[in-house]
Amino acid sequence: MRDPVRIAYFDGGSGISGDMTLGALVAAGWPAAEVEALPRRLGLEGVAVEVSAVRRGAFAATRVVVRVEETRQPHRHLRHVEAMLDGADLPEPSRARAKAVFRRLAEAEAAVHGTTAEKVHFHEVGAADALVDVAGAVEGLRALGVERVYAAPPALGRGSVDTQHGRIPVPAPATALLLRGAPVELGEAEMELTTPTGAALLATLVEDWSGPPPFTIERIGVGAGGRDPKERANVLRVTIGAARGAASSGAPLRRAVSVLETSLDDENPQVLAAVAASLLEAGALDAMLVPVHMKKGRPGTMLVVVAEPARAGDLAARILSGTSSLGVRVRTDERWELPRRAEEVATPFGAVALKVATLPDGSERAVPEFESVRAAAERHGRALREVSEAALAAWRARAPRGG
């Protein structure tokens, strides 16, 4: 019999940040020495990590503080961060997940400032701090054996906050973009509760916002934020347990999804193609255009969208505002899916991202990510198939992956 899936459930009712996540994982059993060693493992100079026991309101919690000597931190862009992670003393799955978090964070910041992810500048101190937070979060989850991450709607906060760009509203623009389509709440506190780093972690790690399956609680960790307001304990609780009724490794996982459908016979096909693409960008799991015969024998198109239940309302609104549809049908289905993870391999054409699925017999199957393949092919003027085959060959030739 297969072991149950180990899951982590993030309760961000008081928000989430990188340091709160590290504190919660240490409190849940990740050795403090591993956290304190992160600057060395990342090759960061002038950075130290301190772990301590504190109280927030009535609760005992673990506080992790990253101390950074500002004068020893260079300017860093996304390529510098990715290069540091490539050279870090971390398992490959943790490096790949950390890079995915930073890529998502950079894309959100780029959208806010009207530039590209590659041109986003991470503030000297903030870059070092975020490197420890992000790498530590993904490595801590891996070390604790977590395979899937779920989360309650995080509290974002209200009001405004002072930044290097001046005073900005809360939630910060990047935070709001990162959590677009996810269920959230503002909370009552007039302060920033969820930071962009915390939002990037959730946006990358949480695959299903509909809630976890039934599970047996094994560990509970409470991480503390830097402030200690009287109104509400500034803590993040992470619960780790074994999901009942779900198998681990290669056994298919079952989850609920929403299926949205609308049939149209008066819409421009070019518009439909653009809408389908925009729905995928907005978080849909899949979007399809299916030829159908409608009333009076008219040819038409059915737009079918598969999404997490929490995103159904937002996606339905996008369909209604972006097409000639007067109504969208929504139903809840069950979907069986293989466990998968993101990886990246080095090829003669540069780094290429892959999605690796674990099959029921424990074997693995890799599929190159099309956009990554296309970008590499365009950079080098090579055929898509050549780049894709090179990525698969590099993946097969690598040393056995493990955690």
UniProtKB/TrEMBL annotation:
InterPro entries: Ni_insertion (IPR002822). The keyword Lyase applies. The keyword Lyase applies. Transmembrane segments: none annotated. Keywords: Lyase, Nickel. It comes from the Bacteria. HAMAP family: LarC. Belongs to the LarC family. This is Putative nickel insertion protein. It comes from Eiseniibacteriota bacterium. The lineage of its organism: Bacteria, Candidatus Eiseniibacteriota. The gene is larC.
